[in-house]
Amino acid sequence: MSDEALRLHAHIRAVVLARFCRDEASRAEALSDYLAVSCPGVGAESAKQLAALVPPVLPKLYAGWAAMFADRLLETVPIEQIQHLCDGSRENETSLLLAFLMYLESETMERRMAEDLAAYGLERSSEDDGGSLVADYIRARVARFRQNLGEKLQ
Questions:
Q1: 131 touches 119 (CB < 8 A)
Q2: For residues 22 and 97, what is the distance between their CA atoms, to the nearest angstrom?
């Protein structure tokens, strides 16, 4: 990777991690915004309540997913467009975050996230930190959320 590509990669990861891993309020706000936009019929207050139910995912997992997103963006989007997205403006940071969320919804990433969460659960199954419980909970909530969304769209 060129120096410019490395700089852009680092910027993309930093923007994503700042929004999703900085603190609980930012995480809850990001989830609430996502749910309000991506789920027809879910109001702002319902989105906030749903966001509060989603436990935090380890920053290590988000860091890996953010790096994969940056890799894919640099593989598929012209560098000039990525430079524009990485200009530091609020609008372009929001665009990057929306693109990241859309990336997470891709079939490939849904599969990868399920694998990562399963691995996290297996790694922590002998520990007393509830890691496997968190992974199981996230998988169950995502499955229920998809089912409910599918019913609403029919």
A1: no
A2: 14
Residue ranges per structural domain of the chain: 3-153
CB atoms < 10 A from the CB of 126, how many?
A: 8
Residue 130 DSSP label = -
Q: What is the dihedral of CA 119, 124, 125, 129, to 10 degrees?
A: -140
Q: How far apart are CA 147 and CA 14, in angstroms?
A: 33
Specify the residue for token string 């700089």.
7
Instruction: Specify the long-range contacts of residues 34-37, CB closer than 8 Å, at least 24 apart.
Output: 34/101
Q: Mind listing the pLDDT tens digit of every residue in the chain (154 residues)?
A: 899 999 999 999 999 888 776 667 776 777 777 667 666 677 778 777 777 766 666 778 888 999 999 999 999 999 999 999 999 999 999 899 889 988 988 888 888 988 888 887 666 555 544 455 555 656 666 666 666 656 655 5
